[in-house]
Amino acid sequence: MTSPHGNIEKGHADKLGAHHDGHGVNFAVQSRHAEKIEICLFSDDGKTETARIPLPARTGDVHHGYIPGLKAGQVYGLRAHGPDDAANGHRFNPQKLLLDPYAEELVGNVKWDNAMTEAAADSAPSMLKARVPAALDAPATAHPATPKNKTVVMEMHPKGMTMLDDTLPPELRGTYAGLAAPETIAYLKKFNITAVELLPVAAKLADERLENLGLANYWGYDTVAPFAPEPSYARDPQNVRGEFRDMVDSLHRAGIEVILDVVFNHTAEGPAHAPALSLRGLDNASYYKSQAADSGKYVDETGCGNTLDLADAGTRRMVLDCLRHWVQTYGVDGFRFDLAPVLGREPYAFTSEAAFFKEVAADPVLSKIKLIAEPWDIGAGGYQLGNFPAGWQEWNDKFRDDVRKFWRGDDDAAAALATRLAASAPQFDKSGRKPQDTVNMVTCHDGFPLHDVVSYNTKHNEANGENNRDGNDNNNSFNHGNEGATDDAHIKSAREKTKRNMLSTLFLAQGTPMILAGDEHGNSQHGNNNAYCQDNRIGWVEKDAIGADGKDLEDFTEKLAALRAAHPALSAEEFLHGTAGSDGRKDLTWLDAAGQEIKHHAWHGAQTVAMLLDEDKIENPAGKDGGRRLMAVFNRSAAPVDMPLPSAQNAGTWQRVLDTDAPKDVPQNHQDGEKLRIAPRSVAVFVRKP
After folding, report:
1. Which residue, among 369, 397, 439, 392, has the nearest Cα to 151 in the 3D structure?
2. Among 93, 460, 525, 584, which one has the highest count of C-beta atoms within 10 angstroms of its own C-beta?
3. CA-CA distance, 499 to 266, in Å (whole number)?
4. Rounded to two decimals, what is the model's pTM?
5. HSE of 573 in the Cβ direction (CA atoms, 13 Å)?
6. DSSP β-bridge partners for residue 653
């Protein structure tokens, strides 16, 4: 086969991927070890190969060429020639059609048949393909640029968030347009959400094992085309990129940032023996970590069969190009990096001085956006909470675990709770870091949602087809006396209060709060704590099934969000150390049930902890004491406590502005020193005004 477009020209290596300039298409493919790269052109439906054209030029590790007359919309794939020597890391086989890793639009799907696995078979008829993208207008809106200490995040699945939302027209549910709908935006604004964190939106691979079980790769952590938005979330398969960009613009107009969960620790190609789809066939030895030069086996620090090698400059280039692409083409505001220690291994030990982190910090685009690490992987030394570079934020699982343990009633949990309320200073209070660098959470997509934390003692993942072996066994959950659904009014009431307690703890803590979509009204996964393959009611947010309790919890969460927004002292820009200044005042004081400061051994066995904030000192350290205070009391005792309200130098009045035992009560005025009853197992918040 030859080109129908005349001679191919050398083109350039400046930009990787396929780029149409109005007169033709430049192709550039990075491969250090390939001897030749061919561009394969296909019919519009991707079924017929019409031309096979070798790229004529090479600059460094980049193979490139320019085809005059080729238009945007052309369907294509790649074939790579080189040694087939798996023992030394090389998996070249020109019989295997490969997806351009820079593909922005996709055609078809992978068909799992013998053509994908037999070495001599041409895989093109069974393989996903790329389409040359047309130019996309620049984003129409500016970044909201919400300060980190004013950020409130809601994590959500781009489909599951709206799939059961009966306030939306059916055709919008489960789509990018559904997330951008006025009804969805108004709902987010109710809770002062400033950023949505979307589970992976990059194009994902259909998993053969899950398909055979009648399940799906729902969460999307098997990324097959990191530059391309997932087509199944678009209404119009011919306008996937445009719909995604429109969603970002709509959220921006409402002042809501878009943070993408991205997967650069592994790819969808799986273990070394699996079929080559893209990077494995283009340059396996460069893109993936191998155990030894003569073994052909991968290092697996991810539990997904392979690990991307970010110590390789070419791999880093691909990742950095991809991140810039999402920011510059679509306007996204930040990224949450799945299993992020992989990014900093050079090649095996994690360091915050890794080349990837330095290149991001020096990048004029990426240095200005929000960067959030999931600070663990399964490799040696894979737990790195608090050890990422200055400017990075991190998911804080210690916050999640310690809050759950406190409200479950574990022994000696009070001191740990105080540490988490004060922005986990032992992990984060170090050079260049800020309180908002801890992303606090009680739940996230991975594990029980809040309703299930208070309703199940153990996981119930039988629907996943793995005989309940998958998912975390250490949930720190408590079913309140009955496993799962119950008609017992006492148990239901206790569960609702514990939900309010946990949400209150989240919104009252220093740091960046992240709420899981659905927790605000008690969404359940019915005991499944690993719904990665449940593209159904188990995994979707059941917004069509919110009962009276759910409506009440929504109202309470709205109240919590308003309280946090009204009191900047709850989101201080600097760490609160609780030490007296020259004026004798402390920004933060811990009190016991008798109103006395908790010191040293008194933490042991404490059941009631009050966090007293000097709002004047926190907001203006050099200013005078105007008498403004905020006190949050966390009483996990089974008995009520009568706690005196603290006094300040100036006369003032206290109000109980929030009470998880009486969530609908109207605030009433109280005086300094007055004893007020704190109900068992509850949170109460008091505000003092001069």
Report:
1. 439
2. 525
3. 35
4. 0.97
5. 5
6. 671, 689
Decide if 346 is catalytic: no
Residue 558 three-state SS: helix
Q: Residue 364: what residue type?
A: P
Bond into 347 cis (ω within 30): yes
Statement: residue 97 has pLDDT above 50: yes
User: Among 269, 338, 542, 615, which one carries the catalytic annotation?
Assistant: 338
Sketch out the chain's domains with CATH numbers. Answer: 17-131 (2.60.40.10), 150-158+187-262+312-569 (3.20.20.80), 576-689 (2.60.40.1180)
Query: Average pLDDT of 513-517?
Result: 98
Identify whether 230 is a catalytic site residue: no
Render pLDDT for 228-246 as a digit per residue (tens, 0 to 9). 999 999 999 999 999 999 9
Contact call for residues 354 and 375 (beta carbons, < 8 A)? no
- Separation between Cα atoms, residue 568 and residue 231, nearest integer Å: 41
Q: Rounded to an integer, what distance in angstroms lies between the CA atom of residue 416 and that of residue 437?
A: 18
Task: Kindly list the distances between the CA atom of residue 514 and the CA atoms of 145, 179, 184, 565, 667, in Å, as whole numbers in the listed order.
Answer: 17, 18, 18, 14, 27
Residues 162, 174 contacting (CB under 8 angstroms): yes
Q: How far is Cα 132 from Cα 146, in angstroms, rounded to an integer?
A: 35
What does the pLDDT look like over 327-346, one tens digit per residue?
999 999 999 999 999 999 99
Q: Which residues contact 473 (CB under 8 A, 6 or more apart)?
A: 458, 459
Q: Do the Cβ atoms of 261 and 198 come closer than 8 Å?
A: yes
Instruction: Report in angstroms the alpha-carbon separations of 373 from 59, 443, 513, 669.
Output: 34, 16, 15, 44
- Catalytic: which of 104, 207, 312, 374? 374
First to last CA, the chain: 84
What is d(CA 230, CA 220) in angstroms, rounded to the nearest whole number? 9
How far apart are the C-alpha atoms of 550 and 523, rounded to whole Å? 8
